[in-house]
Amino acid sequence: MARITTLSLLAFFAFITPFAHAIKFALPAARLPIPKCIWNAAHTHALVIVTANVGPGAHQRVDVEILDSTPHRNVYLSKRDIKGETRLAVTAHGEGEVGVCFRNYLSPDIKLDMARNMSRTVDLDIDIGADAVDYNAIANQESLSGLETEMRKLEGVVKEIVDELEYLKQREERFSDTNLVTNRRVQNFAWFTILALAALGVWQILHLRSFFKRKYLID
Prior knowledge:
- With 219 residues, the chain is of the alpha+beta class.
- It folds into 2 domains: 20-132, Sandwich (Jelly Rolls); 146-219.
- Helices cover 42% and strands 30% of the residues.
- The strands form 2 sheets. Strands 1-8-3-6 form a 4-stranded antiparallel sheet, with no helix packed on it. A 4-stranded antiparallel sheet has the order 2-7-4-5, with no helix packed on it.
- The longest helix is centred in the C-terminal third of the chain and has 69 residues, at 146-214.
């Protein structure tokens, strides 16, 4: 019974575990290339492993840059002229998205009319959080059994879920505070409008009374 429960938990967490983000695309060459960026959500202190396999291409230079979407626009890593398989690792500094940007620079020796069909293929694999941890290496280092390794994976997945729930809770509290502040401002504006209309009405009455008195229409 305990074995069935354990297997059920493993199957459940394996199902909800986020898959690795893999993409393959062609990167056109240009003298002033427009960056091709792939963005993925990441929590604070989350480990991000980027594996880029750049295909061959003569007279082209592929640069990669890893940055985030926070207001500070932190640049974690920048590397020039990557070739073949390149593995990069960074740690997110804040809540938001981490972007991997590529630029394919054309050699000055190549004419622009010859560069129309020039490009390099990029096979990109991004692992974030628990997916980025090499549990096989940990198992070999700590002599863990297969079940212990899977439990270690589940521990990482559960931690990610807890962090996600905490992040959603903080967002909900922030939105709730914003809603309360907005409602308070709307109420204050409504009271100001009522008082302003009341004051305007009193002023109009006094002004009309003074006008009629000057015209001897009322005593």
